[in-house]
Specification:
This protein is α+β, with helices and mostly antiparallel strands. It has a single domain (26-205), classed as 3-methyladenine DNA Glycosylase, Chain A (Roll), CATH 3.10.300.10. The protein has 5 helices and 10 strands; from the N terminus they run ββααβββββααβββα. It has helices spanning 20-23, 28-35, 124-131, 144-151, 207-216; strands at 2-3, 14-17, 39-44, 47-60, 88-93, 97-103, 111-122, 168-172, 183-185, 202-204. Strands 1, 2, 3, 4, 5, 6, 7, 8, 9 and 10 form a 10-stranded antiparallel beta sheet that branches. A hairpin with a 3-residue loop joins strand 5 (88-93) and strand 6. The two termini are 17 Å apart. The model has no long low-confidence stretch (mean pLDDT 94). The structure holds a DNA duplex.
Length: 220
DNA sequence: AACAAGATTAACT
DNA sequence: GTTAATCTTGTTA
């Protein structure tokens, strides 16, 4: 639990680790929607990096043609998705990029939410070292491979329990984006999923809008 | 055993 | 707009 240091004219937000009650639930869409505006954190090599989640997609398990677990596929890769809520499902995409998901249901039901974008708020100097150039907070956190790159994550962090980990965890506060800024659209890069590719399972706030709201709220 | 496609990105032309 | 990067999985032989 960390309280940020706002100046006299700024509202102070109390951030609290999300517990298993938050992650765990029937409705993976609702969880994806609620993750927008929460804070993703890593503490790696004693360096803290954080970002406000601005884009997430729900993957609805064995009946969802876009999910790795469609049809009950249970392989070494998908095994983490079948575990309990709050674990991080991190897998290698296109042989190159590590993609971070939150597991959101009970053991045996492979629901997950893909974190597709964050707005960086802490440890930007660390993030610059990771991408090896100056950071553009609006652009560089937008994309699921970019999120893990900024946060220092790779597949070795797969199956981390985010409800207890001091390396990878998610926090909530009273901060919320304006409802009207949160859009829902079909998911990205899942054309192979037939009709399921059209489902509006993607939630996002434009990172430019997110920056304005975050500054207006006096978060950073 | 071989191959194609994938929840992507950066560097090209 | 095109392409190379390159690991896991499912399909075909």
């Amino acid at each position: 639990m960390v309280e940020n240091s706002g100046g006299p004219n700024y509202k102070s937000f109390l951030w609290k680790r999300t517990n298993v009650d938050f992650f765990s639930g029937e409705d993976v869409l609702l969880i994806a929607r609620k993750l927008i505006g929460m804070r993703l954190n890593t503490l790696i090599d004693n360096k803290l990096t954080s970002g406000i989640i601005t884009e997430a997609e729900a993957y609805a398990g064995e009946t969802d043609r876009a999910s790795h677990a469609f049809g009950g596929r249970r392989t070494r890769r998908t095994e983490t998705m079948y575990q309990q809520a709050g674990l991080a499902y991190i897998y290698l995409c296109y042989g190159i990029h590590s993609l971070l998901n939150v597991v959101t249901n009970i053991e045996g039901i492979p629901h997950a939410v893909l974190i597709r974008a964050v707005y960086p708020v802490s440890g930007l100097d660390i993030m610059e070292r990771r991408i090896n150039r100056r950071i553009n907070p609006v652009k560089d956190g937008s994309g699921p491979g970019k999120v893990t790159k900024l946060m220092g994550l790779d597949c070795s962090y797969n199956a981390t329990d985010m409800t207890v980990s001091n390396v990878l965890w998610i926090e909530d506060s009273d901060f919320r984006f304006s409802r009207r800024l949160i859009k829902s659209t079909p998911r990205i890069g899942v054309d192979y999923a037939g009709e399921d590719a059209l489902l509006p399972y993607r939630y996002l706030v434009d990172n430019q809008m997110a920056e304005a709201e975050i500054k207006k709220a006096g978060l950073y």
